[in-house]
Request: fold
Amino acid sequence: MRSEIVWMIVGMGLVTYIPRMLPFVLFKGKELPPFIQGVLKNVPYATLGALIFPAIIFIQKDDIWYGILGAAAAFIAAFLGANVIVVVLGSIAVLALYSYLL
Amino acid sequence: MADLALGKESSDFKKGLQAGISIGIGYFPIALTFGLLAKTSGLSIYETVLMSLIVFAGASQYISLSLIAYGTGIFEIILTTFIVNIRHFLMSTSLNEKCEEDQLISKLIYSFGITDETFSVVATKEGTASTGFLFGVISVSYTSWVVFSGVGHLIGANLPQTLQDSMAVALYAMFIGLLVPSMKNNVKVIVLAVFGAIFNSIFTIGHIMAQGWSIVTATLLSAILIESAEVIKAKYRGAGHEK
Reply:
């Protein structure tokens, strides 16, 4: 292993770990002002919205319908109450079928 | 008593393993491709696996490869990694409220495994998240990421194109699968997700900010706006009404 690559990896690891770890050390939890606690409870749902869109639309750069179909399949499966793994495998299957038929 | 506590720990761990399976599946194609790209970017298999072992953050590992290929300096690569991964600070702060009280050392260990995906699974779980559950989710995810990075480098070939294309949807489908059950009968969750999605779309499609900042900013804007709206609404209703 080249030492400069190893140093780069160690550096990348440190700057990735610190933001992940710091909040657990800095904040004792449940002592923050109620408004901040409320905001933090909102974070997961706002993040999920941002993680899904717009990225899912562009999973296939030259065919926007590909992403839209995948998103629709996942939404429908999840709405019908399917388990997360079924949602994942179902949307993979729908898209595999779509590219096969195309 | 010790037995009982141990039993609870291990069953929580198992529940975490099960909840983490969809992440394991989702990481499979991404890690495989990472391994392959790392090989074409000139990293050895040891360097590739070491990066997955130590960094464990998909997007920034991909970006580092293209920067290595450009011949970018180490300092710039590390700085870019920091910016891309700063959003985890927000995720950890949010999880800190949800995780059960435990020794700092456990938190120091499992915080290493907080990614967009493990965060989403833990944060959407009902009730408090135990340490055992977190370790379960993270073990599956981490193993899948590290092992398939190595496998991708080793076999040096992609999955069949159609399968690879369709598997690209896996993680997004998982996010949807985690989000939708909470959306049912909960207007607040719907509004939060829609605002997060709209802000992030405006920021990224409009090239207003880099993706690392875009997700953080969109999340914070949405979470703060909706919380403020709730507080104001509660004030208007007067003190007599409990929510």
Observations:
- Chain B touches chain A through 96 residues (CB under 8 Å).
- Residues 185-243 of chain B form one domain.
- The radius of gyration of chain B is 20 Å.
- The mean pLDDT of chain B is 91.
